[in-house]
Amino acid sequence: MKTAKLAFGLICLAILASNIATMSRWSEARGVYDDICYLRQAHLFQRMGLGGLNTNAALDDDRYFEGKLKQIAFAEWRDPIRWPCHNPMPNGKIVMQYPPGTGFLLALFPEGNQVVPLYIAASLIVCGLALAGIAMARTLSSVAGAGLFGALAVYLMINPAKASYSIAPTMAVCAVAGCLTALWLTRDKRNVLLIALIGLLLGASVNFRLPNALLVAGYVIYLGVAFLRVRTLSAFAQGLGFGLAVLLGMAPTLIAQAINAGSPLATTYGSADVVAPAFDLAVLGQYLRDMQFVLIVLAIGSTAWLLRVGKGSVRQVALVVAGNLTVNLVFFLSHPVFTPYYIVPIAMLSLWSASFAWLIQPGQASQAVPFGREPTGLGATSR
């Protein structure tokens, strides 16, 4: 088994090395609107510190964004109302639509060499957790499962993660949150600090992409039902700690929306992105032909398998994942816009959670809940 662990570990490292070699040749001027908008946010942070939360087009007095638009031959670079990724607000400002997290991370690196270090850092986190999963495996089949999933997770940091700068940090957060989710439910469901840390991470992911707010859905359902079943102070503290941590994590986005749109709850996105749900066969067909369909099948399959064969705490992880998958898939499959990365975050969070739940559980599966102890999980029975 040591040989198998070593082999899969080397495969993951080889993919990581190949990714880094490919990333090192990436250009930050590939002509994509999203790219230059994220880079503009990074420039604002580097130039004005926290004042960079204000993305008003009037702050482009150093002509940074105009220069980026000229580089990609954008014809209407002089007119801010026509700038890509920017929308007019009721307060008269023309602001960038994206939350500030991706730009903030890019601002940590020197201008002109920001994207590659961001992707490498996120890839190292993902690869590190993949190697940890392989090391934790206790049977040959679990080594193979952890190794294959780890290799897939590292590969995805190139494709489809390269489609948007916001996906790389999201993938890293999903990997860490998935590991912590399994640890929380298989080791200590009463640990308020651990569930709060998960909430903080998922809340912080909203600063990269607003739809990441849906990643908390399964946790909210699980904690809410658990509290209604037992009605204890411990269950209430867990739900409260999680909720407050989520709000704290997404605070930068709420502040940015207050500055740019006039209210923490007002969106900076235009009407084209804020549309009512409607199932569209053309959009569903695009998902069926895309790599995301494979991830959806893997996420649903692994969750169904855990629900069928998992016991105790492992089954509870599957319940959280199932709730999360249901809410997110209903939302994105009914969203009349397709991208090659919309469903990737929920699929990866689900797979990381299921993978680590199965890897952690062998030492816990045979342990019964001590008699008289207050159960807080959905799979437990109350006194």
Describe it.
The protein is mostly helical. The chain is 61% helix and 2% strand. It is built from 15 helices and 2 strands. The chain has helices spanning 2-23, 33-48, 64-71, 101-106, 115-136, 140-155, 167-187, 192-205, 217-230, 233-249, 251-261, 281-288, 291-309, 313-333, 344-360; strands at residues 86-88, 94-96. A two-stranded antiparallel ribbon has the order 1-2. Helix 14 (313-333) runs antiparallel to helix 15. The chain starts with a helix and ends in a 23-residue tail after the last helix. Mean pLDDT is 90; it is low at 364-377 and 379-383.
In short:
The chain is mainly α. The chain has helices at residues 2-23, 33-48, 64-71, 101-106, 115-136, 140-155, 167-187, 192-205, 217-230, 233-249, 251-261, 281-288, 291-309, 313-333, 344-360, and strands at residues 86-88, 94-96.
Strand content: under 5%
Overall geometry comes to globular
Helix content: 55-70%
Low-confidence stretches: 364-377, 379-383
The largest beta-sheet arranges its strands as 1-2
Helix and strand element order:
HHHEEHHHHHHHHHHHH
Structural class: mainly alpha
Task: Supply the key terms.
single chain, 383 residues, mainly alpha, two-stranded antiparallel sheet, 15 helices, 2 strands, 61% helix
Write the layout of secondary structure elements.
Blueprint: H1 2-23, H2 33-48, H3 64-71, E1 86-88, E2 94-96, H4 101-106, H5 115-136, H6 140-155, H7 167-187, H8 192-205, H9 217-230, H10 233-249, H11 251-261, H12 281-288, H13 291-309, H14 313-333, H15 344-360
Antiparallel strand pairs: 1-2
Helix pairs in contact: 1-5, 1-6, 2-3, 5-6, 5-7, 6-15, 7-8, 7-14, 7-15, 8-10, 9-10, 9-14, 13-14, 13-15, 14-15
